[in-house]
């Protein structure tokens, strides 16, 4: 799908998108970002469109930034997360909030509200737990490499894993499943 001029790409329904994930390597970065936003907002084109508009504004302000940095800015705590390395509570809260978008609850194998829960936890183990629990419901937790010591990622439908990998590669995002964090 191509993104032309100043308007948003044509909206597609979920069935069309499920069956046709192809994108052309010659598509603009903007068109690839649009497709990525559709993947991380499954069934919520309104949010994807809002974030796409915010992406365009962010790009107009800082066109030299990497696409993933602008994407992270417009999706944070709504369709994705970026938390400081030592803030495990925020990581759990962000993942819980994202999962709640689809009426899912992550069983953390303990009570994250208990101060002792985080004594033996690390980001890798928490991401692994979230990945496993979300996979049971047909979702995939993704993380990407940041320029600092933060943890960042988003969630897609598992059926969209291959198009997500392809788009991430095309946008130069070092993306991996949450289970591969380490």
UniProtKB/TrEMBL annotation:
Annotated region (Disordered), positions in chain? 1-24
> What InterPro entries does the record tag this protein with?
DUF6630 (IPR046582)
Domain DUF6630, which positions?
Answer: 33-177
Q: Name one Pfam family in it.
A: DUF6630
Question: Where does the record place Acidic residues bias?
Answer: 12-24
What name does the UniProt record give this protein?
DUF6630 domain-containing protein
Q: Which organism is it from?
A: Rhodanobacter thiooxydans
